[in-house]
C-alpha cells in the first residue's frame, strides 16, 4: 500500500505512546528512528505469532501483515503532573 511505499521512499519515522487516565495525559514516550520494511516471510510469521500470543489472539489471525523494523535513534520521555 501507500504507507509502505512512503516508508521505502523516506524511512524516517516518529512513534509516540501515551498513557492517559480520563483524558488526562500521564506520560508520553516518543521515539525517532529509521524504519525498514522486512521482506522475510518467516520473520514476519514469527513476529506475528509472538504478538498474537502475547495478546491472546489465535496464531492464524492477522496473517496478512508486513513487518516493519524501527532502529531507534533517540527516545524522549515526559511525565505530566
Automatic annotation (TrEMBL):
Location of the Pyridoxamine 5'-phosphate oxidase N-terminal domain: 2-58
UniProt cross-references to InterPro entries, sorted A to Z: Pyridox_Oxase_N, Split_barrel_FMN-bd
Listed Pfam families: PNPOx_N (PF01243)
Name of the protein in its database record: Pyridoxamine 5'-phosphate oxidase family protein
Organism, scientific name: Halobium palmae
The organism's taxonomic lineage, starting at the top: Archaea, Methanobacteriati, Methanobacteriota, Stenosarchaea group, Halobacteria
Amino acid at each position: 500500500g501507500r504507507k509502505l511505499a512512503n516508508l521505502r521512499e523516506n524511512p524516517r519515522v516518529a512513534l509516540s505512546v501515551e498513557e492517559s487516565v480520563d483524558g488526562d495525559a500521564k506520560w508520553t514516550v516518543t521515539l525517532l528512528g529509521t524504519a525498514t520494511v522486512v521482506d522475510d516471510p518467516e520473520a514476519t510469521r514469527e513476529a506475528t505469532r509472538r504478538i498474537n500470543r502475547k495478546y491472546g489472539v489465535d496464531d492464524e489471525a492477522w496473517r496478512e501483515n508486513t513487518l516493519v523494523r524501527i532502529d531507534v535513534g533517540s527516545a524522549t520521555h515526559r511525565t505530566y503532573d
